[in-house]
Amino acid sequence: MLVEVKNNRLHIALVGNPNSGKSSLFNCLTGLNQKVGNFPGVTVDKKTGSSQISPSQTAEIIDLPGSYSLYPKRMDEWVTYKVLLGQDREMRADVIVAVADASNLKRNLLFCTQLIDLKVPVVIALTMMDMAKRKGIKIDIPALERELGVPVVAVNPLKNKGIPELKKAIALTAQQAYKVPARDFIDNKSFAADAINELKQDFPELSDYTAIHYLINHESFVLSGKEQELIESIEVKNNFNPTKTQAEEILQRYSRIRQIMQQAVSEPDPLQKSLFTERLDNIFLHRRWGYLILLAVLFLLFQSVFWLAQHPMDWIELGFAKLSGTLSASLPDNRWTDLLINGVIAGLSGILVFVPQIMILFGLITLLEDTGYMARISFLSDRLMRAVGLNGKSVMPMISGFACAVPAIMSARNIENRKERLLTILITPLMSCSARLPVYTILISLVIPQGYLLGFLSIQGLVMMGLYLLGLIMALIVSYVAKWFIRIKEKSFFILELPTYRSPRWNNILPTMLNKAKIFVFDAGKIIMIISLVLWALSSFGPGNTMHNISERYEQLKAQPGANIELLDKEYQTEKLESSYAGIIGKSMEPAIRPLGYDWKIGIALVTSFAAREVFVGTMATLYSVGDDDDGSLLLKEKMKAAVRPDGSPVFSLATGLSLMIFYVFAMQCMSTLAVVKRETRSWKWPVFQLVYMTALAYLMSWVVYQLFK
Questions:
Q1: Between 508 and 256, whose confidence is greater?
Q2: Does some domain include residue 33?
């Protein structure tokens, strides 16, 4: 889309305030002709699509990130800003379609009038007309069009109403049938006349209002060094004050917007009508009940991700298990088959098994956003989050991290402040995700006795809850400490609009779920596959002829009369893993992990579970020669309970079990998370830092626990 016009294709930028119906209009205009990617250099989703505007003209449409004004604060707002100001080298717009919420027109007109003052072709698409009608708001569209000086079209993307009229207005605007209003909505010269006039002598193509933005944000524009110095000198010479200029502009603009509203909009007296939203907020934002409702909503969200995702995840795992079994039975037993089954297919399984959680989590979050409750969650939790260097918008990624850190980290994008977004990303993996659950379950059953406190509180259940709370508390502590060391100087704003409550846009949920899944599979999945293949190689190969000699020896043992083939196969797999590079790493780790109470077998499990924490159970099953049958879990517990050290003491004592649980609470053993952190931060610096600090924290805390209980 927004590149120079080729093959008579029109390039349209779709912009508007968040929650204004922009995405619904984009889906309506483009249908299935959509592509999802990333803007160059930033982790902001880029949705583009094609649409037939007229019988002879096709348009490329880009859905730019939502913005409240032309004064950007978030990373995604900067993307929109640079495109609209012509400062993106790869994207240019022939026509801007500004989507405005008719039920909240005054706020939306701020952005619309700013766009018009840029002197670019603009069409206004009015959405939410039905909601405006329910509020008693009447809009005279011809009068509004006359006051703004640009085409205004009422649309309802959900019912496909007004779309032909919008396309016609876009086509006519592109053909310059509508003249750009000559008069600005504000008097720029009243507060920056000298600076604007001097700047326009060197940049005569700029409008007065565009010149103001050059003066305010030229450091972020694509300009030569000489041009930057020139603008800087104009600022100094004329004592140009960006903050004062912005404040004066907003005051003048809202003054003009009030006049427009008087001419074109009829609103009911707000004192005579108590809105439904206000009545609900009296409950949801109540000092006491508001927090109880919030906890209930978060509990249901957390549980729903488990309940709804469990069966799809089981089906995916079962499907890959059957595929692996079928291929294993039909393909020759050689190294290439092993690579395909235990390398490629195992890697794909590790990627795709996360997809149900990602889709369901983002679907539920979209549902909360559409209904208007998401903003209330951030508002209620802001005080606690701000005390540790975060803000209210950090709470949803953190809570989502209890299900899976991968989509949780992706959802941190809506945090405007870079430092707070980075802190949220760095601490979210400390939330105990669902992958830790199998590890917690088997270790608790090994070292924590079954029993009840007060006759009804399960001791094992309390330990499990304590592990989850421990991760949350440590995350807040780490954030509080880290905020003093991350030197990103950027003002923190928690300016939050509380939108009206409304029914969700159901047709917007599925595309969002599919887009998030696609981003994860095709971006983070590449790195996951590479690491999976590396782990396969470490587990399959050993130095010299070691693996070949082991194989030959077991073939001879199997050939002996009365040999127990099944038992020999299990022992062969155990010795093979022990002698592989992964096994060598485990044994080489033993001196380092012995102070935590671990032996070399646990060391191997720590290495292999880096692919996914739940691999710990499978690795221990292989090491203790336990088959993967229906009773494998029970047999594994018995074998692990019976395991002893050379001195006769049990391997899995209370001290070792607790130490291992604590290690898994804090350790960064998830390559999927590291891959997503790298993608979100656009650097290996932060995932490496995350790996180092979480491993060090896990080691220290595990050592303390082992020393206390041994």
A1: 256
A2: yes
